[in-house]
Amino acid sequence: MMTTEHFAALSFVARMGTRKKVHAFVRVKPTDNFPHEMIRYGDDNKSIDILLKKDTRRGVVNNQQTDWSFKLDGVLHDASQDLVYETVAKDVVSQALDGYNGTIMCYGQTGAGKTYTMTGATENYKHRGILPRALQQVFRMIEERTTHAITVRVSYLEIYNESLFDLLSTLPYVGPSATPMTIVENPQGVFIKGLSVHLTSQEEDAFSLLFEGETNRVIASHTMNKNSSRSHCIFTIYVESHSRTLSDEKYITSKINLVDLAGSERLGKTGSEGRVLKEATYINKSLSFLEQAIIALGDQKRDHIPFRQCKLTHALKDSLGGNCNMVLVTNIYGEAAQLEETLSSLRFASRMKLVTTEPAINEKYDAERMVKNLEKELALLKQELAIHDSLANRTLVNYDPMDEVQIAEINSQVRRYLEGTLDEIDIINLRQIQEVFNQFRVVLSQQEQEIESALRRKYTLIDKNDFAAISAVQKAGLADVNGHLVGEPDGQGFGLGVIPFSFKPGKKIKSKKTFKDQLSIPVRKEGASSPLSTKELDISPSKTQLILPPRDGDVKDMRDRETSSTEPFPSDSPKEELRPPRPSTPPSKPVAFEDFKNERGSEINRIFKENKSILNERRKRASETTQRINAIKQEIDTTKEALNVQKALREKQGEYENKGLMIIDEEEFLLILKLKDLKKQYRAEYQDLRDLRAEIQYCQHLVDQCRHRLLTEFDIWYNESFFIPEDLQVALKSGCSIRPGMVPINRVVSLHNYLKAITGLQQVNKK
């Protein structure tokens, strides 16, 4: 014995099928007083008409509807139990052994023959209902399928007064449940937690369980039915099929829900009282919720389906709107006095026909068998690799996981490679490559730890975000009010080299000057080799490099390096005479701008041109991609129109189905494949266009930056070269860190006049 949660824990895959509508049949209970003038059947046995006479008591103006017509999948009138099963249930049970879930439901008013249709009568063997015949068909088909190992399990659930009961809990090996049963949902579907599931190896065992459950059902008597079912019952057959011939880990499962609903009652006709009245209230309430769920399922615009309003709809959630073959048998009374209930039942059947389901094969995977198959496949692949390596004279290749000795050897090779004693590391297989990169990471991490440990032994490291430590250092006199440590040149990062306590103010520190000199030496070397600091950005897919424009600090460093290299001597040095004389009249800005781009601003101009060429190339590619996207879109529209024409032609000629699959011709199939490929191309081209647009935006930003920098540098150079006097430039350079060319011209002229006046006064005072 198992419970339903065991089945929900298995791995699950459902191959989605085509959507199909619920099949709805009507079975008419034969009576002696059948109203032929009120109930009429169509010639095809798929329609039923209800005709009523007008009520003359409503007066002359009477808009009462008197006729209704219902189109169904079949009308079973005076039909035997054999014919009912062949028409309603045989295909559903047959497809269940192929992996499709199935549900057969009997609905109708009380006393209309639902239980007789589902379970039948025990007096005569021919009067067996759908449920025992389904069990018989399942076991007969199992005997015919000798290539599969098929197991069958059953469960029997009763919903009485909105409470769940296990009708097979009275068996001696089951026992009562300590916790009440609940309905649980998971990605695999809906199952009843606590409901016992019983293994049946033969037909007799299944019938014994069926009879055991039938004896535990709640029944009562009223004026409409002497043996009225007072609860909804769901008998479920679980089928699991494994292949005997294939060692495949995949197998199929399915379940058949056979639902016998309690009948709806009009209390005025049944005369129910007391406990029976309470039961009728719960029955009518749950059936009303069932009809609400069916109405919501039939409405394509509804997003929410009220499955959880009652236990019945919640338990049948998979059957009503899930991946199963659904069949409804509506039982009606063939008497004039019951026409109102008959109309209500037929309306329910019509609404049920609007509901669509999506039957799918339920495929699961046996984890244990999957592991064995993967191990077998792995061994075969290793053998194939060994044969390939032997033919290629690669005898030292090993595909097993590396041990500690091999990892240590790779670590040693990596260290020797970094030290320069090993020229290259021999590559054997992919596993070794992965381990080499891993050992590079290990060596890098160890070196970082060693450097940090060495710094901590030699210096005192204080994190600038640790305010408590900074406060303590300030109190000890080791830092100024701004939080800068003694000996710290820039006030950023970690403080290195805290001054010792034995230091006296009168002593000079030579190391501080040496430290500054050490900082300036690599800067000069860098400026001599590369006068402009640039960055490169690698943009896929063309791998074209975009050059970032110089930053303010980089340009300033560049000019400082140029000044230090071209003007290492004071202004009164003889080398000052080598500078070209300043023209009396400054050239026009366009002419000066061309000279600037060829000489002083050549590097920025080169970066600007390169970025602009890259931008133009990206724009050209984006234009070509846009044209391709438009062409693909037009072709998609043309293909859709052709596909719609083929579909309309197929519907006009008549649709053909084979085992639930729609049959289409080759031309329509090729159009579907073409449309799928075009959509794939469209998505790929559109993604390329989005990437190109992002690159264009970034390139445009760099071009604008370069243009702004080029114009700014030109203005500064133009002012310094032709407007600002040389003596004033020397004074400004010695007095502040601002370049003379950045000062506005009007202020420069005022300052120059002021300096002349001061100089004149000084000369007068000397005289």
Please describe the structure with a list of short key phrases separated by commas or semicolons.
48% helix, 12-stranded mixed beta sheet, 3-stranded antiparallel beta sheet, alpha+beta, 767 residues
Task: Summarize this structure briefly.
By secondary structure, the protein is of the alpha+beta class. A hairpin with a 7-residue loop joins strand 15 (219-220) and strand 16. The protein is elongated and about 145 Å long.
Can you offer a commentary on this structure?
This protein is an alpha+beta fold and 767 residues long. It has 22 helices and 25 strands. Strands 1, 2, 4, 8, 9, 10, 11, 14, 17, 18, 19 and 21 form a twelve-stranded mixed β-sheet that branches. Strands 5-6-7 form a three-stranded antiparallel β-sheet, covered by helices on one side. It has a two-stranded antiparallel sheet with strand order 3-20. It is elongated and about 145 Å long.
- Main beta sheet strand tally, sense and closure: 12 strands, mixed
Q: Share of helix among residues?
A: 40-55%
Identify the overall geometry.
elongated
Give the strand tally: 25
Q: Termini separation (Å)?
A: 125 Å
Protein name: Kinesin-like protein
Coiled coil: 364-391, 615-642
InterPro entries: KIF6/9_C (IPR056524), Kinesin-like_fam (IPR027640), Kinesin_motor_CS (IPR019821), Kinesin_motor_dom (IPR001752), Kinesin_motor_dom_sf (IPR036961), P-loop_NTPase (IPR027417)
Biased composition (Basic and acidic residues): 551-564
